[in-house]
Amino acid sequence: MTAAPRVSIILPIIDRVETFNLAVPMALSQTLENIELLIAMAGPSAPLREAARRWAAQDARIRLIETPREPTATTGAARHAAIEAARGEYILILQDDDDWSAHHAAYMAGLLDRAEVAMNSVRAVTLGFGVHAWHTGLDQPHIRALGRKLGRKTWYEAHYGFRRSLYRRLGLRWDRVSGGLSGYFSEQVLNEAASVSWALGAEATSWSLNSPPRRNPAIAMDTPARAAECAAWRVLRETRPPCAAWVERLSILVEQNVLPTHDYDQTIAWLGLRRGGLVAGSEADTELRLVHAALTGTPVRPDDLTPSLGHMIENGQGQFLRPEVADTAFGSAASATDRAACGRAYAQGQQGMQRAVGFAYAAWSATRAGQLDKAEADWVAARAADPRIVGAGAPVALALAFALGDAAAAQAVLAPWSATKEIPWPLKRIRNRWARRTR
């Protein structure tokens, strides 16, 4: 028998042939050649099964694992079977719509040489191809404790790897989890009783085109659209500007009142961001300093924040834009009218979705300022820049519809979710707020 591979890459999949056919060659083209690729199929469609067989016939490093389709349409059983079948000690999970650089496997293997769980900095790609990055700091016990306290997801599978022996030592069973597979794994390894050893890196080797924004029913990105997005992103990623770092998470930490100090340098040290690659004086460091100042009550000129406005609006971590994140970052340093002007100024230098989010934020702010004519014009400009803003910016559209007293427009915003079990909380919150005002 040949020597065991250094890394076993598990690609869990049910359908989505187009994105699958992009992910497989990305795994096989890793600079670390001593790998195996386990395609973990959970009740696959016939086209996917056939595509997997064609790939396996071309490269001996591919092995096919197949389990029956689960009632919850998850891949837990297939993942577990793949881990049991893996010949390598180091495990990486490759989602079909995520992105790895060519040396990602080699980089993660180097981290796993000294730890049971390895993670590089998280980089989430937004609908507008913005990138949000943060260093998790999970190698520090107080940050792990904070993660357990807040109950927030702080990592994604594109960015972590683990030892197969750890999965077995902790008695983990992905096949017994009905949903939230990544959340289940993180909950188990964050448990201090597990005594897990950690290694963190800061190099950009992976990017998560995470699903929540793409599952927005008002956007409805089908598999071919997802594949086109992935392909376009891989062409663009080498030219993207520096990432925003910890913007959303810093706002959460301030909101929860868990920071031990409001001194910026001490906060950065406590979070471990310098070790995580945040360079003093860099664009990301300047942006974070401004946001920190706003969140902790220090006045900041509104136009100082305009260059980073897009990062704060489109945080990439949910179905909707988060204009309130930008509101928080501006703090008391700007009126709603000033914030609307900043949104328009930001939009003028952008294209596509980033231009749309700038005008959407202007519409949001103008609505709050009672400038409804300007808000309507801003929303028209947002939709012209990228029609997907109708879904991603649904909270803005709903607030504007209610402010205008346009019940039909409000119903149209809510319509895509009519077939779902429940209206998402950002929309429900706006609806309830206006209902209270009109009683």
Describe the structure.
The chain has about 450 residues and is of the alpha/beta class. About 50% of the residues lie in helices and about 10% in strands. The chain has helices spanning about 15-30, 45-60, 75-85, 105-110, 140-150, 165-170, 180-190, 225-235, 245-255, 265-270, 285-295, 300-305, 310-315, 325-330, 335-350, 350-370, 370-385, 390, 395-405, 405-415, 425-435; strands at about 5-15, 35-40, 60-65, 90-95, 100, 115-120, 120-125, 130-135, 160-165, 200, 205, 245. Helix 1 (about 15-30) runs parallel beside helix 2 (about 45-60) and helix 9 (about 245-255) runs parallel beside helix 11 (about 285-295). It is globular. The protein starts with 6 loop residues before the first strand and ends with a helix. The mean pLDDT is about 85.
Topology, element by element:
Elements: E1 7-13, H1 17-28, E2 35-42, H2 46-58, E3 62-67, H3 76-85, E4 90-93, E5 99-100, H4 104-112, E6 117-119, E7 122-125, E8 131-134, H5 141-150, E9 160-163, H6 164-169, H7 181-190, E10 198-200, E11 206-207, H8 223-236, E12 244-245, H9 247-255, H10 264-271, H11 283-295, H12 302-305, H13 309-313, H14 323-330, H15 336-348, H16 352-368, H17 372-385, H18 389-392, H19 394-404, H20 407-414, H21 425-437
Parallel strand pairs: 1-2, 1-4, 2-3, 6-10, 8-12
Antiparallel strand pairs: 4-9, 5-11, 6-9, 7-8
Helix pairs in contact: 1-2, 1-8, 9-11, 15-16, 16-17, 16-19, 17-19, 19-20, 19-21
